[in-house]
Each structure stands twice: as structure tokens, then as C-alpha cells.
Amino acid sequence: MNLKKLPEDEKPRERLIKYGKENISNNELIEIILKSGTKKMGIKEISYNILSSVNNINELSNIEINTLMKIEGMSKIKAIEIVAAIELGRRVYEDNKYKNLVYLTSPMAIVDYFHTLYKNVTQEMFYVVYLDNQKKYIDKKLLFLGTVNYSLVHPREIFKTAYLLSASYIVCIHNHPSGNSTPSKNDIDLTKKIEQLGNLHGIILMDHIIIGNDNYYSFFEDNNL
Predict the structure, then answer these.
(1) Which of 62, 144, 146, 216 is 20 to 30 A removed from 22 (C-alpha atoms)?
(2) Which of 97, 130, 159 is the last residue of a domain?
């Protein structure tokens, strides 16, 4: 169906304006993103095909461009538009969640907020979370991505950002793609080095947390700090 032929009050953009974003369907949201159909298939059919390809809309959160392109009526450009919209929504949600943090005073609270950073990740990512003097979230920074060689996770970068943000506490978080959160010797050595330098600079390492598959290791909880 060509959207141009629809009455004005039935077009998805107009319905969103009239009734509000919360009151239009998932199909209509997808139609707004896609903007138009193709010569062979109308936009409403394409929207229906996309939603019919998953059991529920949450499954679209991790859908890939190549998967979308296999859906009847989809092109590479339209697949990119859908993926980009989903990713933008994810970033808005995540950033808003972090800005509304209150106090991060326990490893479990930290894991609850940040474990989604590592969802479906197949390589190691080393983040540092920066906190103020009340242990309230300021910002986070990804310092390393890949197979961890700890000579590349340089404490200088950790503390340079801490000074710029006027942070009083830091929390290091990284993942083990193997799923086993037990710290390696490199993990232990790096943690001790960061702790010592933090004490010297007056910026306290509050914890170093390793994320596994449905498990985590906290140096603080294990009395290794």
C-alpha cells in the first residue's frame, strides 16, 4: 500500500503527531523509519514482514543487517536504517540510565548497571567508571577493546581522565568472553598496580569487577583491595 494514498489521519507520521508516540503501533513506528516501500512491495507489508520474522519485538534489539536483508521487501539501505534507529534508541536509553544513577556503593549495584555493556560481546572490553567524592557516577570510558594485553591498558590514561573529570573514585570493569570470571595473574597484577597508583594520586580504586556469563568477580568482595 502506498502511504500517499492513505487519508491524512491514517498516515503513521500524522497519527504520531495527533495521538503521541506512545499510542501508535510497532508497525507504524517501523513505517516511519522506513519512509517508503519498494516498487514490488508496500511499506505496510514490509513492516509486517519485519515483525513477523521475530517472536517478539525485543528480538530486534540485536538483529543484524544481513538478517534484515533476508526479509522479503528489505534492501540493504532499509536494513541499515532499522539497525541505526535501534542502536540510537539503545544509546539514548543507556546514557539516560547512567545519568540517573545515584550512589554506586556495592559491586552488585555496579554489575546491575553496567553488565549490559558486555551483552553478546565476543572480545574483552576494559572500562573505567569515574565517581565523585560521594561515589556518584560521573562518566565511563572504554580504554581497551580486543584480546587484552595489559601493557596496553596503561594506568596513565585511567588517571588522566580521572583528573579531567575531578573524580575521587574509580571502578575498573572488564569481561572474560570465556564466561569464567576468575581473575588471571595479569588481572591481579594490573589491579594492584592501579590501586597503588591511585593511592599515590588520591584517587581510590573502589573495585575491579570481571564480568563472566551470569557471574562476576569483585576484587573488593574478595578482600583483594
Answers:
(1) 62
(2) 97
